Amino acid sequence: MYHVNQSFLPYVCPVFSDTSLAFIDIWSPPILVEPASARTPPTASDATDAVYSILFTFHDKVMHSAVIDDIASVIGWIYFTAWTLSFYPQVYSNWKRKSVVGLSFDFVLFNMIGFIAYCCFNVGLFWIPSVKAEYFKEHKDGVSPVQINDVFFAIHAVAITLVVIIQCFIYERGTQKISAWSKVLVGFIFLYVIITLTLTLSGEMIWLDFLYNFSYIKLVVTCLKYTPQAYLNFKRKSTLGWSIGNVLLDFIGGWLSIIQMFLLAYNGDDWDSIFGNVTKFGLGLVTIVFDSIFIFQHYVLYRGGHSGKYSYSFVLSQQHSKPS
């Protein structure tokens, strides 16, 4: 077995205001903590801060293999790279054609909503001490379901999707617009966030559960966002305007994401971590399914749809020929 020091303790240690000694676990040495009373009268806030200062000092975790851990880390950065680069073929295609015709605006809208939600979930679970404490209180001896590459991917995704939105405003878009049903759905999402935030602020819900709601939003939005694009391809009998480079890189990233989760779960004997981050697992699975559909559309169904009758120039001519 491989023994490695980590940075988090999965359960709350006792903190005493009148003593300077607290124990982490059987693997860790005693940690000296300055009594709160030595500085100011002890308060609930002092106790909480002291707990977090201990929680994130030491955590010893047993792994099957250091090699597997390194492989999982490398895979994480590879799929991070694949998913990160997957945005750029679409951006480049839009720029080269000076057009976003063929790109579903509903897809772009859901993309932004989903990545904002995913960013909130990842940042909260990775960087906010109180949220991490709540997670490991429920998953004792578990591994963190969010890695640093997940955080930077989500932040980057929001930024690059914003670039695509700007392209939708400045480039040729024909008659494309956001559908009414998409606007209604986004309205329901915002209402749901406001309701759950109110419950959290009132103490009816913990912050971890609030962030889980963001992860569920991302998962639902991901399931929905590909549908308008697949339908648009079907309606036009062409994938022109929808970058296949984006699809292929997305497909690779989806598989590697799931592989990493299984490696981490096996190596830490923590299979619950897969469902502890249902968003990451679900995203990988949904991505694989829809990318398979897009690959089939591009290379099988509409192979002749990249030129000729359903070419870019034809689509534009049809749109410009319609009465305004």
TrEMBL record:
- Which keywords has UniProt assigned to this entry? Lysosome, Membrane, Repeat, Symport, Transmembrane, Transmembrane helix, Transport
Residue spans crossing the bilayer: 71-88, 100-128, 151-171, 178-199, 205-226, 247-266, 281-302
What does the UniProt entry say about where the protein is found? Lysosome membrane
Gene Ontology cellular-component annotations: lysosomal membrane
Reactions catalysed according to its record: L-cystine(out) + H(+)(out) = L-cystine(in) + H(+)(in)
Q: Gene3D superfamilies, per this entry?
A: 1.20.1280.290
Q: Which family does it belong to?
A: Belongs to the cystinosin family.
Q: What is this protein called?
A: Cystinosin homolog
